[in-house]
Amino acid sequence: MSIAVSARPVSHPLKAPFRISRGVKTAAEVIEVIAAADGHVGRGESVPYARYGESVDSVLAQLTPALSAIDPEVACAALPPGAARNALDLALWDLRARRTGVSVAEATGLPIPQDLVTAVTVSLDEPEAMAAAARAVADAPLIKIKLSAQDPAARLRAVAAAAPDARFIVDPNEGWTFDILSDLAPLLADLPIALVEQPLPAGEDQALEGWDPPFTVCADESVHVGGDLAALRGRYQAVNLKLDKTGGLTEALALLKAARALDFQVMTGCMVASSLGVAPALHLGGASDFADLDGPWWLAADHPGGLRVERGRITPPKAGFWGDGEEVEGLWLK
Hints:
The protein has 334 residues and is α/β, with parallel strands linked by helices. The chain has helices at 56-67, 72-78, 83-100, 104-108, 127-136, 152-162, 178-190, 243-246, 249-261, 275-278, 281-285; strands spanning 4-20, 23-37, 40-46, 116-117, 120-122, 142-146, 167-171, 193-197, 217-219, 238-241, 265-269, 290-292, 308-310, 313-315. The strands form three sheets. An eight-stranded parallel sheet has the order 5-6-7-8-9-10-11-12. A three-stranded antiparallel sheet has the order 1-2-3. It has a three-stranded antiparallel sheet with strand order 4-14-13, with no helix packed on it. The radius of gyration is 19 Å and the shape is globular. The two termini are 27 Å apart.
């Protein structure tokens, strides 16, 4: 079987700016990979992430050898974890499902839930603006609050007052020191906090060693693949699994298994991406303690037939979108 592989950059404008402690974005800049064989087409998408030294150009350059490889499966396995391997790995999974008729759910034993709770994100802004954003999604069961080192307590209180029935994931994106975290601990303990996600910079999280917080601390930037987990024990109680960090579903499945074996709680997360990039993660989200998969919710226009996020719950994509082996036309933006 000969597999033809192509890759292209795609820009998806956002409906509102997405701000975190490291900056702001107004569009999701993604890489889409198409793998074709025997009249079947598989698709995958990834998000180059500057935090990990990636750009659209660098990811396309990484993918160049795979575009002419005799065996793209071998070329995929040779890539390092990251956005390039993710897009290719996902395209190959989708193609395999379409060629064999065996869905990804069947192959992995991880069906997509029909009603999956996802965190919806309130991005970093002034407290009043964050409160307004929280009120707009106050009926969601789980809200992620993006914070920085600038007056996080005021922002936390503003969001909590605006969404009194929700639980919260607090995410400073490596933006705090241990002193900020410990000073905020009493306030965090009084709020319905599900997770505090990556409060300290990766590589500087040794301050968490042996600390017994009154809430669950989740690693994000500190964990990419299964080999990272051993060093996180005693620092974190949960890990955030993202396809763009693991480099695709293949490694993500291994990371999920390894995290469970070490008694970590698991959250499946995503970058700001289209439904093509997030749909594969729904298999993992259903097997996780938490899901943070609202990436497509930020887009001004998503692919037709993609997943929907309403009231903090995900409706899966339509048949034929990704990984179920069905062939349906008209689902892709041109």
